[in-house]
Amino acid sequence: MPSASDTAAHQHRIQQTLIAAGVIREVLAVWPRLIDVADINGSWPVLRHVIMNLVRSGRSRSVAAATSYYSRARAIADVPGSFIRVPSTPEFPAEQVATALSVTGPGMLKRSIASGRTPEQAAVAAAATSSQSAGRLVLDAGRQAVEEAVKADPAAIGYARVTDGDPCAWCAMLASRGVVYKTAYAAGRGQELGAVNRFHDGCGCGEKPAFTEEDEPEGAEELYWQWLTVTSGADDPLKTWRKHWRNRLNDTPTLEVGA
How many angstroms separate the CA atoms of 165 and 125, rounded? Predict the structure, then answer.
């Protein structure tokens, strides 16, 4: 049976997913109304402005949810005292958001048309990719809020990645590390991994703050031993792991770490 902290982490991840899903739906709705495939460069600025406002609003809701969740996680862990520096709304990264939306929006639209798709087919594909990008940009705000709270909170020992039950190979590998991420650039159980906080478009993972060693997410240890078994002696552990993750048996249960 999941612990109270795992249950809270799972509920928070679902809440964040619903916030992002709402933004994704709104982005998909405005695309066909505002994009002109005959004048991509001319129509994109208006569409970009609308999407950026949707992302900005979604990020505020994501941070608010993260703030509430962090306080709840602290209470579940029965941490004494109060933590004043609760997650604050990070500055809106306008340039980063604009760049990501341009690459996945008009950039994808032009590439799709150049590859032979009809303008209509290309517009559908671009709407899908830019909406997923918008969803990630929304979720990143809540994730950043949790990370910053953990770093600032003396009572926190770190945070772990929790998955949606169907993670990609990269996310499964990071989830197997358990509670090791106290900084934005960290090593996973003695192995330098690099940008461990990286989340991709369409990623359903979340983060769980930890205040004791017992806060290790359910399933993380089992997943870690799977990593060790699969990559033992491999010249390229990540490549070996990705191949394993692609080829694992269909009837093998996928671990939802932290659920």
Answer: 26
Spatial CA neighbour of 31 closest among 141, 134, 138, 139: 134
Of 197, 141, 145, which is closest to residue 19 (Cα–Cα)?
141
| Residue 127: C-alpha distances to residues 43, 96, 117, 200 (Å) | 14, 18, 14, 17
Average pLDDT over residues 112-120: 96
200-222 confidence digits (pLDDT tens):
888 889 999 999 888 888 888 89
| Secondary structure of residue 206 in the 3-state scheme | strand
3-state SS of the chain: helix, strand, coil percent to 5?
A: 60, 5, 35
- Summarised one tens digit per residue, pLDDT across range 128-147 is 999 999 999 999 999 989 98
Contacts for 123 with CB less than 8 Å, ≥ 6 apart: 31, 32, 35, 37, 109
